[in-house]
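Exercise 7.
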Amino acid sequence: MIQNDRHAPEAVPQHPDVTEAIVRERRLHDPSVRRSGPRVEALLDPDFVEVGASGRRWTYAEMVAALPTLHGSGEHSTPITAALFEGAVLAPGIVHLTYETRIEDRRARRSSIWRRDAAGELRLYHHQATPVPEGTARP
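Solution. The predicted structure, written as tokens, is:
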């Protein structure tokens, strides 16, 4: 069902796949994961595609190679703050998440689709980020 940071996780009923997708999404925000090719590869689907907040399209190979150099990856870089997670199971093994991030003074609304692979692992298949214009109130 829905997971939202405005509530304690135990206060909002949610499907276990949504919980798992949120945990995995948060791992991708962890600098130690972002700097580790093998850990990133384990979280991304081989067919992964992202359309970033810049409008750039990223493939699996491009993201694995670039992620260690992107914001939120350095030991001393500004951390990625994520909140307002909501999720839904679209079909067995397919989870859609939405949430908002803040990196320094930039906000983005994000949408992710996670799918289970043949081994049963939930992996990020598609990600989209849309910048939030300065001065825009939260939803």
